[in-house]
Structures are given as C-alpha cells and as structure tokens.
Amino acid sequence: MTVRKFKLFLGPNIHKEEEWLTEMSKKGLHLKKYRLFNYFFEEDPEQSYVYQIDFRQEATKDYLQLYEDAGWEHVTNAMSIFHYFRKEASNTDVKKIYSDKNSIQDNYKRMLIFYLFIFFFFLISQLGIIVSWKGPWHDYLLVGGDIVIVVVYLYMFYILNKRINFFRNK
Amino acid sequence: MAKQPESFLPLSQATFYILLSLRAVRHGYGIMQDIEEISKGEVTMGPGTLYGALGKLEKQKVIEKAIVQQDNRRKYYQLTELGRAILQHEFIRLKSLVENSSELIKEVQQ
Fold first, then answer.
1. CB-based contact, A19 to chain B, within 8 Å
2. Average pLDDT, integer, range A64-85
3. Where are the transmembrane segments (chain A) (predicted)?
C-alpha cells in the first residue's frame, strides 16, 4: 500500500529531512518517490532503512554506481539535484554518506552557490515589476509574493551559513 | 607554471589514503575497500566524501581517469606524475616527523 504525505522541507534542512524519513521507516513507511513536497511511502512493517540525502547537480552514471557499490540504493530525487539514498538499518556498515566534516561542509557550500545563483536570477527577473510599475492591484500582489520569496531565501542562506560554520574545522 | 607537489602538503588523512590506494588503478568502490583494508579498519569513507574528494583531486590533476575497457559503468582512476610526487613528499614529511620525535616523545609525560 502506498501512503502519501505532504511536508515542507527547505533544502538546507536535509539533515532534518533525513531524520524524519529514517524515523518514518522505523514505523514501517519507506520513501519510494518524491514529487513537489509530496512523499510517497511504501508500507512494510518488516523493514527499516536509514535515509541519506545528497545534493549533487550532475548525477552521472559513475556517481550513482559508486553509491550502489557502497550499498546505497538510489530511491528517488528532487529536481535531479537532491538524491535520496537508503540502506537497510540492520546493515552494520557506516550509515552516513559523508564521513568527515570537510565533505559535509562542501555539500552545503555547493547548495549555497546553487541557491545564490537562483536568487540572483530571481531578483533580475523581478526588476521588470519595478521598471514597469503602474500601481494596479495585481502589482501589489506580485510584490507581496516577491517579499515572501525573498524572506524564504534569506532564511535559507541563514541556515546554510549556520550549517557551514558548524562543520568548519577548528 | 605547474603546481609544486610541496604546495599540496600536508595531506588530510583521507586524501593520503586515497592517493595510497591508487598505487594500482581502481574505481571508487575499489578505493573504499582498499582504504578500509590498508588502514586496518581505522578509516571508512562514505561514498559522498569519496566522490567529492575524487572530483577535487582530478580537477587539481593529482589523479586522472584511467581507461578500463571491460567496465563502462564505473570510472577508474590512476595517479598522475604530480600525484605520485605528492604522495612521496608527504611520506617523507611524515616519516621525518615520526623519526625526529620518537625519542623525544618519551620525555613528554602523559
């Protein structure tokens, strides 16, 4: 049986998302598919997996093969940049895809560059509103929407910065 | 100008083991297994950490892609001249550290 759950996680909070998915799996609900904040779980009380999420923009064949060789099953992805992997919880191998602070930090740094890039293009795309400002009501709506997006992005940069500092050596 | 091997030192424990495991041509998982073996289980590397490190080392031309015809799903790696030189330099550096301190360390009380 497939169970669908709607849940919002921001990119920088993948560690919380991983914990949640692993927790769900302990209860017998195992993530199989992700589509736009919708998590599709497969029910099996006999199983339990540990979930890990990797941020990687160019997931090549050899990248996926390496994870598979190391015992990580590629379950699904979000926008082809967030990759969901899992391993059976009973497996005695290491349950983390990142084994040192440096590489965890690199993962967040890649994410930061990606979001900065998107944020930059978002700002440029919205310049048109200001340039062609005539004051009708729908412009206020647009600006309101923009403010929400800007706040979300600033919050994500704040979290990413905190995560990067947390994993800074020394 | 080509980068000097000395400019890469000191290596992290992970990088040192990756380069050491490439004394033979290996793919990613082969490197992981070899590292676990040669470090006597002391170092186990996650695939994310290894993949990131390999990408960086390849960019710095410390390692390079090796052509292995029987397997087109995995990427194989080998040391470049620079990589070999870095490994040798780091070994000499570590060895002299241990040699220079092996007598003196006894004077340092626990």
1. no
2. 95
3. 112-134, 140-160
